[in-house]
Design brief:
252 residues, alpha/beta, Rossmann fold, seven-stranded mixed sheet, 10 helices, 7 strands, 16% strand, globular
Length: 252
């Protein structure tokens, strides 16, 4: 099974990995700006967008799928769930630089990890993901934009982008959800020994800024840029700031 990867632009390769339940059209606000500087490889994760599902939907297997189809020594950028996958890709193959957007090494709170979503909130929020995908996504898109100064406009852009590709495969949704529920990269994060940029919205409700601050302190070559007035969607609410930060970091 091959992933659907759309390739646009010219320059050094930049692999971009989207979030849960979505697809690569979610990058539409930043895509045209970034493609002026890089050859974008826009990944549809298994079971989402135009990609078929895979039999074993675990973090390592998904990261391996991406790693096998991406160019050697590429830049990799991941958002939310895509940040977990991008981090894993950087741990198993050669990546030139890494950009993590609205990312966290551990999405759900644990006894020794307060910078995540409370487990009961996580379970109740996503309980109807398969039975009522559209209702769950409407709630998720509102939460993604919550706190942004452009919340209403960015929610509308997210909804319109989401409708551009087929509904995700149900097993793919559940598999990706299990990655969010169970993954914890805290103990291995220091193995990422390449330049890494964390971009985070000031008002992110899904992945607290404290998670990005913690991650940036674990890596020797890390930078953190917090976008004022943004939530979990800085590439949509603040595309100019977002693309400037990405471009300057990757070209430095």
């Amino acid at each position: 099974m091959s992933l659907h990867i759309e390739k646009i632009g010219q320059g050094e390769p930049l692999v971009m990995i989207h979030g849960w339940g979505m697809h690569s059209d979610m990058w539409m606000q930043a895509r045209d700006l970034l493609s002026q500087h890089f050859e974008l490889h826009l990944v549809d994760l298994p079971g989402m967008g135009h990609s078929e599902n895979i039999d074993v939907y675990h973090l390592h297997e998904v990261a391996e799928k991406v790693a096998k189809q991406m160019p050697m020594n590429a830049y990799v950028l991941g958002w939310s769930l895509g940040g977990l996958i991008a981090s894993k890709v950087a741990l198993i193959t050669s990546v030139k630089k890494l950009v993590l957007v609205g990312s966290t090494p551990c999405f759900v709170q644990r006894d020794d990890w307060s910078h995540g979503m409370p487990r009961d909130v996580f379970e109740s929020f996503f309980a109807g993901a398969v039975q009522d995908y559209q209702g769950t996504m409407n709630k998720l898109l509102a939460l993604i934009a919550m706190g942004s100064k452009n919340a209403r406009a960015t929610s509308k852009i997210l909804r319109e982008a989401l409708a551009l590709r087929p509904l995700p495969n149900q097993q793919g949704l559940l598999g990706a959800l299990d990655i969010l529920r169970t993954s914890d990269l805290r103990q291995v994060l220091s193995g990422i020994d390449i330049p890494t940029l964390f971009i985070h919205g000031e008002h992110d409700k899904l992945a607290p800024v404290a998670a990005a601050q913690w991650m940036s302190q674990q890596l020797l070559q890390a930078e953190l840029h917090v976008i004022k007035g943004a939530a979990h969607e800085p590439f949509i609410s603040h595309p100019q700031d977002f693309t400037q930060q990405v471009t300057e970091f990757l070209k430095a």
